[in-house]
Specification:
The complex is a heterotrimer of chains A (about 350), B (about 325) and C (about 350). Chain A is of the alpha+beta class. Helix content of chain A is about 25%, strand content about 25%. With about 325 residues, chain B is α+β, with helices and mostly antiparallel strands. Chain B folds into 2 domains: about 230 residues, Aminopeptidase; about 80 residues, Elongation Factor Tu (Ef-tu), domain 3. In chain B, strands 1, 2, 3, 10, 11, 12, 13, 14, 15, 16 and 17 form an 11-stranded mixed β-sheet that branches. The longest helix of chain B has 16 residues. Chain B is globular, with a radius of gyration of 20 Å. Chain C has 2 domains: about 230 residues, 3-Layer(aba) Sandwich (Aminopeptidase), CATH 3.40.630; about 90 residues, Peptidase M42, domain 2 (Elongation Factor Tu (Ef-tu), domain 3, Beta Barrel). Helices cover about 25% and strands about 25% of the residues of chain C. In chain C, a hairpin with a 5-residue loop joins strand 1 and strand 2. Chain C is globular and about 65 Å long. The two termini of chain C are about 35 Å apart. The chains are: A alpha+beta (about 350), B alpha+beta (about 325), C alpha+beta (about 350). Chains in contact: A-B, A-C, B-C. Chains A and C meet through loops of A and helix 2, strand 4, strand 5 and helix 5 of C.
Chain lengths: ~350, ~325, ~350
C-alpha cells in the first residue's frame, strides 16, 4: 500500500486505545513487503523488524509511533435508547455537541451527539460549556433495538471522512499519530535504497493516549540501543502562542530537553542536513508527552529522541497536516537509522 | 462465607501496615496451596501447580485498606494526621479510628465556615489523652490507624469497613477452597499498597511473570438515588470490567470471562468505571506486558467505614473465578 | 568545601554534567569504580564483593531551573521552567545561562509605573523575560541557543548560626552527604547513585535502581523545611537544626518500617538528634527505588532545607553532619545482614 493511501485508510478506520486490533491487518499488508518479521504483543503493539545486513552484534534502533486514537465508550443505554458515554484519552467535551460518531456495537451504528434546540435554552445557558453528564448519543433506535446492537463498553469514534484541503494539506481524525506510523513506512522505503548497519524495530504502539502503555512494555521487551518517538506537534493556528507551535509544510520538529539525549538530537540534526530536510526545534522542559518519555526510563535507560510532525487542531475530528511533512519525517528517520553504528551507540553512555 | 468476610474485614491493614491481614490470610490458605511466601514489599504470594499444561495465571486481591497516619501530636494531646490512600475529609467527621496497638480515637474538626473548607489539615484525632505525654504513651508520629467499621449482616447484603478489598481477598480464599482441578499454574497474590498507587501488584507481577492476570476488586454502582450514570447495580451479578481510569482490560480476556459466565449461567454485568484503578493495571504493565482483566464486586459507599456488598454478587464472583480456572484460557 | 562547589554548579534536570564532573573528581580513587549510564546517572561502587546486603544510596544531582524557549524582537529571552518553581520568586532575580554562564536578569515593570491593582496579581512565567543585554533578536540568538538551560545566580555562603545558604541545596546537600558516606569505612556492597532528572519525575533513580538491583535502598534528600512564621508548630514538616528527618510516608513511598525503626534505635542509642518528616506531601527517588523489579525495602533520610526550589535555600551544617553520622551508623549496623 502506498503511503498516502495508508494514511487515509488508517485515519478512517477505528482504533481507540486498547482496541487497536482492527488496524493490525492494514499494517501487516503495508509493512509486510518491507520487513523481516511482524508480531502483535499482549497490549496490542504492532512490532515489525527489519534486520540489519551485517553480522551480529548489530546496534538496534526502535522507532515508535502510536497507533491508537482518542475516542469514547458507552457507559449506559438509557430507557429510551439514548447512549451515555465516557472518554478514552484526552477528549475535549466542547468539540462533541452536534458531532457525528460511529458506535462500534455488534455492528457499526452511526450516531449523533445530540443537543437541546437553541430555542429551549435558558438565558445564559449557551455561554457555558456542556458537561460530560449532559451529553448523549442518539442512534435513532428505541431501548430494545439499541440493547440488541449496543452493549456497555462498546466504543465510539468520530465519524469523519479523510479530506484533502488546498496546498497538499490533509484533514481527518486520528492523524495523531497515524501520520507517524506512515512516516515509519516511508522510512522503510528509503532504507531499501540505503546502506545501514542497525536492526530496526518499527513499533506502532498501543494505548499511548492513556499513558504510553504500549511503549513501556514494548521497549522493555526490545531493549533497544536508541529509541525515537515519532509523534505530532502543535501546528500554528489562531489563538495559540507562537512559541509552542510550528508552521505546517516547513518540516518536522526536533525536541530538546531532559527527555532527549543530546547526542541523539545531534545525530538527528546531522541526518536532517544530510537528507536535505528542514527542521524546527521544540523546547520540552519536562514530560514530552510522547512515547519517548516512557522509553527513556525502560530497564537501565534508553537514549531517546523525538521527531514531531506539526499538526493543527490536535484531538479534534479535523486534525490537519501537510503530507510533505510526513514524507520529510520519513526520510529523516531513514537517514538517522543509516547513521547509527557501533561507535555512536557506545558514545551514548556518559562518563 | 459471611464469617470469612467478617474475619477479613475486621483485620487491621492500612497500606504499608498489612501484617495482621497477611497473617490471617496466610493461616487460611496454607492448607490450600503448595507454597506461600512474602516478598520484599509484603505481598503474600501463594503457588498452586496445575494438573495440565495450562497457563501461569496470577490472581490478585489487595489486602490494604485506606487509613490515616499521625504527623504531629500537640501539647494537649490532639493528633494531626495525613491520609493513606483516598480519604475524603467529609466522610471523616465523627468517625472512629483504631490503631494497630489497639488505641482508639475520634476524628474532630476545627470550626469551618463552609463545608468546602473542610480539608484534612482542619481535622484532628482525639485519643482521650489530656496531654502530649499521655497521647505519646498510646501513639507515635508515623503510626497508622484504620476506620472502626464493624461487620454487620443485613441479610442479603453485608456491610463493614475495608470491604475494599477484603471482599476480593475473601473471594480468592473461597475460590481456592472450592477449586477442584485446574490445568493452570495459579499464583494467588494478596497485594499490598494498592490504595496508594497499585504498588504491590507491580512488584509481585514482575516476579510472577504470569501469562494472564486477573484482579478481584470492588467497583462502584449506579443504582443509588441520583448517582452518576453507570450501568452496574447491586445484586445483578459479578461485574466484568471493560475499563476504568487505570486500564483498558484485555479484550480477549474480557470476552473469555463473559463466555465462561454465560456457559455456567453465572449472573454477570459489564462494567465501565470512570474513576478509580485496580491492580490489573500494574499486572498488565509487568515486563513485556500481560493480558489482564478484572472481576469486580459491585459495592456501595466505597472508602467510608460502611462499605456494602451483596452476597449473591459475591457468590457469582467466586463461581466465575472457579469456572474460569477450571477450563482452558485461550485468548 | 565540596558543598559550595556543588551548590554553585549548574545542573538543571537533563543537564547535570557539571555536577557529575565535580563528584567524579571528588570520588576518583576513593571508590572501587565509577559508572555512568545513558541518562547521566553516576554510580559509585564500594566493596562490590563484600558480604551483606547490596545497598543503593541515592541523591539527585539535578536542580530546578529554566530552558530558553524563544526570543523577543527586542533581544529579550523567553523561558520555561524545568521542575516546580513558584512564579512569584522569579522577578528581580539574576540567572546564569548555559555553559558559558552568560549573566541575565529577570526584570519587571518599576513600581512607579504600576497601578495599585497590578501589584495584587503575581507575574506569570510567560509574562517575564530574561534580559542579557542583547539589542536585537539576532544578537540574542547568536549568544544563546534555543533550549539552552539557565539557573539562579546565587553565591554559596555560610551565614547566621551554623547555617549555609545557596541555590540547589535540594539536593546538592544530599550529594555532599553521599560523598562523605562513600569515604567512610563500611564493609558492605554500597552503590552510591548520584541520580539525574529527579525534579521532572524521579527518572534517573528508576533506571539506576534497575541497574544496581539493590536489596535495600535509601534516598538522601534536601527536604521541605517549614519552621517559618505563619505556620503552626504541628504543620512544620521539618525544623532546621533538629537533625536528619526520617520519612514516615510521602506521595511516592511508604518507607520500610523495619529500616525506620532501626534508624530511630541507632539515633537514640548514639544520641544523634533526629526528627520525623511530619508530612506526606512531595515525593523523592525512594518512590522509584522501592518499586524496582520485585521490590526493594527503602527508606528516606533528609536534610531539612528552607526555601527549596527558590533562588536561595538554607540548611544547617549540624543537620548535615548528623545525617552523615546517622547513615554511617545504619550502614555499619547492617554489615552482618538485615531483616527488613
Amino acid at each position: 500500500m502506498e503511503a498516502r493511501q495508508l494514511l487515509k485508510a488508517l485515519s478512517e478506520a477505528a482504533g481507540v486505545s486498547g482496541f487497536e486490533h482492527g488496524l493490525h491487518p492494514k499494517l501487516q499488508e503495508a509493512f509486510g513487503p518491507w520487513v523481516d518479521d511482524m508480531r502483535i504483543d499482549a497490549l496490542g503493539n504492532f512490532i515489525a523488524k527489519k534486520t540489519g545486513p551485517g553480522s551480529p552484534p548489530r546496534p538496534s534502533v526502535m522507532l515508535a509511533a502510536h497507533l491508537d486514537e482518542i475516542g469514547m465508550m458507552v457507559t449506559k443505554i438509557d430507557e429510551r435508547g439514548f447512549l451515555r458515554f465516557t472518554r478514552v484519552g484526552g477528549v475535549d467535551q466542547r468539540i462533541l455537541p452536534g458531532l457525528e460518531v460511529m458506535v462500534h456495537g455488534r455492528q457499526a451504528l452511526p450516531g449523533i451527539i445530540g443537543t437541546k434546540p437553541p430555542h429551549l435554552l435558558a438565558p445564559g445557558e449557551a455561554a457555558k460549556a456542556m458537561k460530560w453528564e449532559d451529553l448523549f448519543i442518539d442512534v435513532g433506535l428505541g431501548a430494545d433495538p439499541a440493547q440488541e446492537v449496543v452493549a456497555v463498553g462498546d466504543l465510539v469514534t468520530f465519524a469523519r471522512p479523510y479530506t484533502e484541503l488546498a496546498n497538499g494539506l490533509q484533514s481527518g481524525k486520528a492523524m495523531d499519530d497515524r501520520c507517524g506510523v506512515v512516516a515509519m513506512l516511508i522510512c522503510l522505503e528509503w532504507l531499501k535504497r540505503m546502506h545501514f548497519a542497525a536492526d530496526v524495530y518499527l513499533v506502532a504502539t498501543a494505548q499511548e493516549e492513556i499513558g504510553g502503555k504500549g511503549a513501556i512494555v514494548s521497549t522493555y521487551g526490545l531493549v533497544p540501543d536508541v529509541g525515537l518517538a515519532i509523534d505530532v506537534g502543535h501546528g500554528d493556528s489562531p489563538g495559540v502562542s507562537e512559541d509552542h507551535t510550528f508552521p505546517l509544510d516547513k518540516g518536522p520538529v526536533l525536541g530538546v530537553g531532559p527527555n532527549i539525549h543530546p547526542k541523539v538530537h545531534g545525530l538527528l540534526q546531522k541526518a536532517a542536513k544530510d537528507a536535505g530536510v528542514s527542521v524546527g526545534t521544540e523546547v520540552l522542559p519536562g514530560s514530552s508527552g510522547t512515547d519517548a518519555w516512557l522509553m527513556q526510563v525502560s530497564r537501565d535507560g534508553v537514549p531517546t529522541g523525538i521527531v514531531s510532525i506539526p499538526l493543527r487542531y490536535m484531538h479534534t475530528s479535523v486534525e490537519t497536516l501537510s503530507f510533505a511533512d510526513v514524507e520529510r519525517a520519513g526520510k529523516l528517520l531513514a537517514f538517522f537509522v543509516a547513521a547509527v553504528d557501533g561507535p555512536f551507540v557506545e558514545g551514548l553512555t556518559w562518563s | 462465607m459471611k464469617e470469612l468476610i467478617r474475619e477479613l474485614t475486621q483485620a487491621f491493614g492500612p497500606s504499608g501496615s498489612e501484617a495482621p491481614v497477611r497473617e490471617t490470610i496466610d493461616t487460611l490458605i496454607r492448607p490450600l496451596v503448595k507454597e506461600v511466601r512474602t516478598d520484599a514489599l509484603g505481598n503474600l504470594i501463594a503457588f498452586r501447580p496445575g494438573t495440565g499444561s495450562g497457563k501461569r495465571v496470577m490472581l490478585a486481591a489487595h489486602m490494604d485498606e485506606i487509613g490515616v497516619i499521625v504527623t504531629a501530636i500537640d501539647d494537649k494531646g490532639f493528633l494531626r494526621f495525613s491520609n493513606i490512600g483516598g480519604v475524603n475529609a467529609l466522610a471523616l467527621i465523627g468517625t472512629r479510628v483504631v490503631f494497630a496497638g489497639g488505641a482508639a480515637g475520634v476524628i474532630g474538626s476545627e470550626p469551618v465556615d463552609e463545608l468546602k473548607d473542610l480539608k484534612l489539615e482542619k481535622l484532628f484525632i482525639d485519643v482521650g489523652a489530656s496531654s502530649r505525654a499521655a497521647a505519646e504513651k498510646q501513639v507515635g508520629i508515623g503510626d497508622m490507624a484504620a476506620f472502626h467499621g464493624p461487620f454487620q449482616d443485613l441479610g442479603d447484603r453485608v456491610v463493614a469497613k475495608a470491604m475494599d478489598d477484603r471482599i476480593g481477598c475473601a473471594i480468592l480464599v473461597q475460590a481456592l477452597r472450592e477449586l477442584q482441578d485446574s490445568p493452570h499454574h495459579l499464583i494467588a497474590v494478596f497485594t499490598v499498597q494498592e490504595e496508594v498507587g497499585l504498588r504491590g501488584a507491580r512488584t509481585s507481577a514482575y516476579g510472577a511473570e504470569p501469562d494472564v492476570g486477573i484482579a478481584l476488586d470492588v467497583t462502584r454502582v449506579g443504582d443509588t438515588p441520583k448517582s452518576r450514570t453507570m450501568e452496574v447495580s447491586m445484586g445483578k451479578g459479578a461485574a466484568i470490567k471493560v475499563k476504568d481510569a487505570s486500564l483498558i482490560c484485555h479484550v480477549g480476556l474480557r470476552r473469555h470471562l463473559v463466555e465462561v459466565a454465560k456457559a455456567h449461567q453465572i449472573p454477570y454485568q459489564l462494567e465501565v468505571l470512570e474513576r478509580g484503578g485496580t491492580d490489573a493495571s500494574s499486572i498488565q504493565m509487568a515486563r513485556s506486558g500481560v493480558p489482564a482483566g478484572v472481576i469486580s464486586i459491585p459495592s456501595r459507599y466505597i472508602h467510608t467505614p460502611s462499605e456494602m456488598v451483596d452476597m449473591a454478587d459475591v457468590r457469582s464472583c467466586v463461581q466465575l473465578v472457579v469456572k474460569t480456572l477450571e477450563g482452558p484460557i485461550d485468548l | 568545601m565540596v558543598l559550595k562547589r556543588l551548590s554553585e554548579a549548574a545542573g538543571v534536570s537533563g543537564q547535570e554534567q557539571e555536577v557529575r564532573a565535580i563528584i567524579r573528581a571528588e570520588l576518583e580513587g576513593a571508590v572501587h569504580s565509577l559508572e555512568g549510564d545513558t541518562l547521566g546517572n553516576l554510580i559509585a561502587v564500594r566493596n562490590p564483593h563484600a558480604p551483606g546486603p547490596r545497598v543503593m544510596l541515592a541523591a539527585h544531582m539535578d536542580e530546578v531551573g529554566f530552558m530558553i524557549s524563544g526570543y523577543e524582537r527586542s533581544g529579550m529571552l523567553k523561558f520555561r521552567k524545568v521542575g516546580g518553581i513558584d512564579d512569584r520568586v522569579l522577578v528581580s532575580k539574576g540567572v546564569r545561562i548555559g555553559k558559558d554562564r552568560i549573566p541575565g536578569v529577570i526584570g519587571a515593570k518599576p513600581i512607579h509605573l504600576q497601578e495599585a491593582r497590578e501589584r495584587e496579581t503575581p507575574l506569570r512565567t510567560d509574562q517575564l523575560f530574561i534580559d542579557i543585554g542583547a539589542k536585537s533578536k539576532e544578537e540574542a540568538e547568536k549568544k544563546v541557543a534555543l533550549g539552552e538551560f539557565a539557573v539562579f545566580d546565587t553565591a554559596y555562603a555560610e551565614f547566621g548560626a551554623g547555617l549555609v545558604k545557596g541555590k540547589a541545596l535540594d539536593d546538592r546537600i544530599g550529594c555532599a552527604v553521599l560523598i562523605s558516606l562513600l569515604k567512610e569505612e563500611i564493609n558492605l556492597p554500597v552503590y552510591g547513585c548520584f541520580t539525574v532528572q529527579e525534579e521532572v519525575g524521579l527518572r534517573g533513580a528508576a533506571v539506576a535502581a534497575y541497574r544496581v538491583n539493590p536489596q535495600l535502598g535509601i534516598a538522601i534528600e534536601g527536604t521541605i523545611c517549614a519552621d517559618l512564621p505563619g505556620i503552626d508548630e504541628e504543620f512544620r514538616v521539618t525544623s532546621l537544626g533538629q537533625g536528619p528527618a526520617l520519612s514516615i510516608a510521602d506521595g511516592g513511598t511508604l518507607p520500610n518500617r523495619a529500616m525506620v525503626n532501626e534508624l530511630v534505635r541507632l539515633a537514640q542509642a548514639h544520641q544523634v538528634p533526629f526528627q520525623f518528616r511530619r508530612g506526606t506531601a512531595g515525593a523523592n527517588d525512594a518512590g522509584r527505588i522501592h518499586l524496582t523489579r520485585e521490590g526493594v525495602p527503602t527508606a528516606g533520610v533528609s536534610v531539612p532545607c528552607r526555601y527549596i526550589h527558590g533562588p536561595a535555600s538554607v540548611a544547617s551544617l549540624d543537620d548535615f553532619r548528623h545525617t552523615v553520622r546517622l547513615l554511617t551508623l545504619f550502614l555499619k549496623s547492617i554489615e552482618g545482614g538485615f531483616r527488613p
